[in-house]
Design a protein that fits this description.
With 739 residues, the chain is mostly beta strands. The protein has five helices and 45 strands. The strands form nine sheets. It has a 22-stranded antiparallel β-barrel.
């Protein structure tokens, strides 16, 4: 009898004291999965973290145990275990940022904490602000607000997206073989208030990122559900008005839907009014088909038109023939539109496996008028050009994930496939006059480009170590039909590239994570150039490495410090204005980056980001090997007030140092330091706000280029800085009603 009693106690203790493995999923109030939440088992003091789908597993849980769930920006929640068989569904409520809740562990991509903090403390309020949330990323606008921004990151002048891969909910933003430039990434179809999260990475280190992901990638995730409906009105100087409406349509336990709209008009601060107009429409439905299947459908429409004053030469301002906000040719400008539909499906296949699928389609139109050299080529009519295209983009992706665990190791492996197919019809470059008369077609043709990619990788957690090896394979098919030829002669090229990657994390202590990231990436060339060169330098590779750490020296601070290097086999400087690619050979960039977030008191957060890069061409002699417009030093920082008696606001400053504008540094792009301020007050249903851009009314050049041009009265061309002036003091007020 005693023996039977002993066996019973042994079984009882094994089942109820050692416990079982439970699973769960963590959502926000908006039904969005919460990644990197900490789940603490209070009895054993063991913890785990949710993955990017919000899912988690926890071993040795028994009936009556207690779990404590925390995540930055959400109120902590305590869960008592009453059932060991059913998966836990846990919803967290949003609240003010508290850095004390930030934890560092092998399961967390700790760098994402930086953007999580920034979005919560200083939300984005314009399309231009969205990309600036990535630490160290700077932007510049040089066509009246309607053209995609120029991007700077890690010593790259990325132009409009040549070396950074950007997506929204998995929908690609970059346009391959674009009429204006390779990788063109226009973010203006995104309504900022719909953005829930920003996922980013620097360097070519992720297996699910392919073309353009050399300097880095940025993924924007939109909200699945609204907390409440709202109407927001903004008005400011330069005849600026913006109206945003966000309306909740469906708020059921298993189904949500909302629509959002944005209308923006402004004349801008230029002497010639911009007549800028943009409209955005956005809708999203998300629902559970059953316990294993979840679906989301997103649709959006975007339309924009504008006039622009273009880039002006220093000498015209110095001679006082025009002001800083004047123009040589004020008939520049353009039109663009984009319609998107995205279907996102995820399915739980078993306790340890799941699959995610995306299917998307975009219809895109673009027409841009520019004049960069004025009368250099045509002394009578001027050098105005038109770049135009109509595009249809199709694509899909599917990713299978399976988790595994044992007494000593746990982790997951993934396998994915991606397909993208672009059809750009009547892709045009023409010489025009006054946006009315076409003088000559310089390029005109149809582009068909396909990219099939596949990858496999695993993430293994072994005590304090995390290993992440992976391999990616991409195959491209390029076809171009030149409409200017007298005969039908489609040209075709194909190419494949293999990209291995390996990342290593080591959690030296609970508050310190060391990491080493290595990998190979690539950026593709323009289809028209590829077929002209008969397939040479189609997919030049980039090889990178990061060595750094993220550290919580105390409960109120987070620090990231990294040293990195990136070697490129071939730099592409696509001159869309001339329809050519200027290869600049091999290059190497090395740098250091530092990010610091500090919350000395509950209602105040301090942020600081510093980035230094040494960028040089390897194919040119010393002194002539500078990479034009490559930023070598950027600094940004600010103080942000959160949740203090209804008040919120911040003071934020950014600095871009003077940098070479040409290969021998004989022409320099002058740096700038700009300070912006915002202040607001919130009640139960109303938000009031004031924003000031360029508080000190500094004269600064937002974008700069070393350009050879000729004015109408000049007999010889001159090469010097041509610039677009940055925003002067700009005051804007807003009121938002929530219901």
């Amino acid at each position: 009898m005693k023996s039977l009693y002993f066996v019973f106690l042994l079984v009882f203790s094994s089942t109820f004291l050692c416990g079982q493995t439970i699973t769960g999923k963590i959502f926000s109030q908006a039904e969005t999965p919460i990644a990197n939440a900490t789940i603490l088992h209070t009895r054993t003091d063991h913890h785990t973290h949710s993955n990017r789908e919000g899912e988690f597993e926890l071993e040795h849980v028994a009936l009556g145990d207690t779990l404590h769930i925390t995540h930055i920006g959400y109120a902590p929640q305590t869960v008592h275990i009453t059932d060991l068989t059913a998966p836990l569904l846990i919803r967290l409520n949003q609240r003010s940022i508290n850095l004390e809740e930030v934890s560092i562990s092998p399961q967390i991509n700790a760098l994402h904490i930086i953007t999580d903090i920034d979005i919560k403390t200083n939300p984005v309020n314009s399309s231009q602000d969205i990309l600036k949330k990535v630490p160290g990323l700077f932007i510049g606008q040089h066509a009246g607000g309607g053209k995609a921004e120029q991007i700077f990151l890690r010593g790259f002048d990325i132009d409009h997206g040549t070396d950074i891969a950007i997506t929204v909910d998995g929908l690609p933003v970059n346009m391959v073989s674009h009429a204006h430039g390779q990788g063109y990434a226009d973010m203006h179809f995104v309504i900022p208030e719909t953005v829930e999260k920003i996922d980013f990475g620097k360097g070519p280190y992720q297996e699910n990122k392919g073309n353009f992901a050399t300097a880095g990638h940025v993924d924007f995730v939109t909200k699945t559900q609204l907390q409440e409906s709202s109407i927001k009105l903004e008005a400011g100087q330069f005849n600026t008005q913006r109206l945003v409406g966000m309306f909740e349509l469906l708020d059921a336990p298993e189904h949500t839907a909302y629509i959002a709209s944005e209308m923006l008009t402004t004349d801008g601060y230029f002497d010639s009014p911009q007549h800028f107009h943009r409209i955005n429409l956005f809708g999203k439905y998300a629902g559970l088909l059953n316990n294993q299947n979840r679906i989301a459908i997103t649709a959006s429409y975007f339309d924009s038109q504008w006039d622009a004053s273009g880039q002006i030469p220093n000498r015209a301002v110095a001679s006082k023939s025009i002001s800083r906000f004047g123009a040589i040719d004020d008939t520049e400008g353009g039109f663009t539109n984009r319609t998107n539909i995205l279907v996102d499906h995820s399915k739980v296949l078993s306790k340890h496996s799941s699959i995610k699928n995306k299917v998307y389609m975009s219809k895109y139109g673009f027409e841009l008028y520019s004049n960069f050299t004025f009368f250099l080529e045509d002394s009578l009519n001027g050098d105005q050009i038109r770049q135009k295209e109509e595009r249809v983009l199709y694509g899909m992706s599917s990713e299978y994930t399976r988790t595994f665990s044992s007494d000593k190791i746990h982790g997951n492996w993934v396998a994915g496939i991606q397909l993208r197919h672009d059809q750009s019809m009547d892709n045009e470059l023409s010489h025009t006059k006054n946006r009315k008369e076409t003088l000559q077609n310089l390029q005109l043709g149809d582009i068909v480009e396909s990219n099939l990619g596949g990858y496999i990788g695993t993430t293994v957690h072994l005590k304090k170590w995390t290993l992440n090896p992976s391999l990616r394979l991409d195959h491209f098919n390029y076809q171009y039909t030149d409409q200017l030829l007298s005969t039908y002669d489609p040209q075709k090229e194909t190419k494949a590239i293999l990209s291995p990657k390996f990342n290593l994390l080591f959690n030296a202590r609970e508050n310190l994570q060391l990491y080493l990231k290595t990998g190979k990436g690539f950026h593709s060339n323009d289809t028209r150039v590829i077929v002209q060169q008969r397939g040479r330098t189609i997919l030049p590779a980039a090889y990178g490495a990061d060595l750094g750490y993220i550290w919580k020296p105390n409960s109120k601070s987070v620090i990231n410090l990294a040293a990195w290097t990136l070697y490129s086999e071939q730099e592409f400087v696509y001159v869309g204005d001339a329809g050519i690619v200027e290869p600049s050979g091999e290059s190497r960039r090395r740098g250091m980056e530092f990010s610091y977030r500090h919350q000395p008191i509950s209602w105040l957060v301090w942020n600081l980001d510093m980035n230094y890069t040494h960028a040089r061409s390897l194919d040119a002699p010393e002194g002539e090997n500078y990479i034009p417009l490559a930023p070598d030093l950027t600094v940004s920082g600010g103080l942000n007030l959160i949740g203090k008696s209804g008040f919120h606001g911040g003071v934020n400053t950014r600095h871009l140092a003077t940098r070479p504008a040409n290969e021998d540094n004989s022409i320099a792009a002058i740096g700038y330091t700009i300070t912006d301020v915002n202040l607001g007050y919130s009640t139960n249903s109303l938000d009031f706000g004031i924003q000031i851009q360029n508080l000190f009314n500094t004269e600064w050049n937002e974008t700069q280029f070393a350009t050879e041009s000729r004015l109408k009265e000049e007999t010889e061309p001159i090469e010097e800085i041509h610039f677009t002036p940055g925003t002067p003091f700009f005051l804007k007020a807003s009121i938002q009603y929530r219901f």
